[in-house]
Design a protein that fits this description.
alpha+beta, Alpha-Beta Plaits, two-stranded antiparallel sheet, 2 helices
Amino acid sequence: MKFIHITFRFEYTDFIDSILDKHEITDYVRYPIVEGRGSDGKHFGTQVFPGNYTVVQARLDDDKIKIFFEELEDFRQRKKAHEHLRAMVMGVEDSLGF
């Protein structure tokens, strides 16, 4: 089992949700509007630093990581604005309730 952490511009939440649904990832946590800093500057939801990010965290079986990442990478390649998507995978040593 792996733990996946995804950050992306909040306006793409519906699309990321559709990827999660397609891969039958039903247990996840979403932090809908968080502040962050990307390659093009700060995104704090203000007039000076517009925009926000969304964070999704979920567990994913080892054998599903590759195809899930391929779909996320396909999304990143579609538009320059999608390049802000970041994802990382961490191993899970132990878990409770899964």
